[in-house]
Design goal:
Aminoglycoside 3'-phosphotransferase, Chain: A, domain 2, AGP_Transferase, Aminoglycoside 2''-phosphotransferase, Phosphorylase Kinase, domain 1
Amino acid sequence: MLEKEMVKIIKASYPNLPVQEVNLNTKGWDNDVLIVNKDVVFRFPKTLEIRKKVLKEASILKLLKTKDPLVRIPNYELVYRDGEFVGVTYSYLKGSSLSECKEDNIHDNLDNAVLIGDFLTKLHTIDLSEIGDIGRIHTDAYWDNLYKSVKDHILPNINRSIQKEVEDLFEQFLCADQVPINTIIHGDLTTSNIIYNHEENVINGVIDFTDTQWGDPAFDFAGLYWSYGPGFTKEVLASYRTEEDKESLFERVQSFYGLQPIFHNVLFAIENNQTINWDTAFERFTYLHSFRSS
């Protein structure tokens, strides 16, 4: 959606909101985002399918809000144009994406692991009967298709030893017994979707619930593991409350979920004709894979 069109919708829907300054971000996969006066966020889904997902987000966030998580989450208000749902608005969560922060920031305050553990506990314990069928993205077909894309577009470009590690990774995961899928997960809890408050040196919020779905709760630790490794992931797990054996959950993170972000990153780069240094692209994967093998 063009910036001019977004501003027109905002002015029509919120005539008392003075639009003095706008910051536009259209680089996301799912939404165009316009921040007005550094205070109010407007998210406009790029497709009708994403609009349906955002409506689902709104319902889940409403339920999550009742659990009073320690971190802030968006409080969605639906935006309409001529009676048609086109997006959501919410107060801007002050801070920066954790992806823009140094790794030391996350470790400097022990409360950060506690805050994420509390958030995941409360999200994962939402009563499914209150939300209905929210769908599942990470089906067997999803993982089969990912592996096929990896074999077609990534394996031919990497050396044989890493090829073998990747092949073994997928083969073992695809052949393993699947855990029961009865949990609501965030589905995209990466550093890009965690907000960090520099002034207080603490995590301030979690955003972008577009990929919320029924899934394996271990998947929500994947982004943390990929970015910060096993040590911080275990700190978060220490504050995470679950009836499941935490060692079993961590094993699923360490053996597969925490390693698979590399494939999405590289495939995205290929699809967008970005330059890839194949000599270094899998350095992080190799490092984290060493913990899996030990």
